[in-house]
Amino acid sequence: MTSYYIPQPKPEAKSRVRDESAAKLFRRATLESLRPDDELTDQMIRVGTKIYRLHSAITATQSGFFSRNHEAILQKNRIGQPFIVDDMNVTEDLFDRIVSWFYSARGFASADDFKALIALYKAASDLDVDVLLLRILEVVAADENGSKFPGGDAENILELLNLAYKELCPRPEPYPDDFPHTKSFYSSIINLCDRLCDRFLKTIPVSALIDLEVLDDDDIDWRLRAYLRERLDDATILVKDR
């Protein structure tokens, strides 16, 4: 009886197949949601594939399955640095479409999803990053029941709100003359962040806030920390009144 040696696929090959599958899913969903003659379709697929690959590499490091292919992706994009988009004419309309699709199709299921989109936005150096981040917040705010963001996870809710305050609501006030926007622009952003705080913080159990120990976290913006302290104080008063 003749035996044959069947070579096993390398981890890099498995990863490549996984990336290609993600790209196919993205392509199918995109084509279903867009007109066949939409000129942005191909570009959205290419950018979307990059998001999936980066997200896959991040997940791989957390799960322990980490191949040389994942390492190359992380090295190329340097986690924590602006996401690299090669040879692309990135437009505001393209970003709008990606965010709208990402949110309507599956929501921001995790903080990694949100970070991947923010990183993609920051790659567009010729666009106003503040305005683009504000646009993500507006998409989230438009979801009246908060069902798609951020998966009911207290840490994800705080991730969005903290990033919004720190990136969009700079200190100190009054703002210097060289700030890129008017005072009314920042006031409108702060109002939006405050409204999101009022809505989302009510969905976080007080026990979860205590477990996260957010009041002692120096990375939490001072305005968000004030909201959290007020929420905990109100909860304490309610318990005493019972």
UniProtKB/TrEMBL annotation:
SUPFAM superfamilies: POZ domain. Residues 41-106 form the BTB domain. InterPro entries: BTB/POZ_dom (IPR000210), SKP1/BTB/POZ_sf (IPR011333). It comes from Arthrobotrys musiformis. This is BTB domain-containing protein.
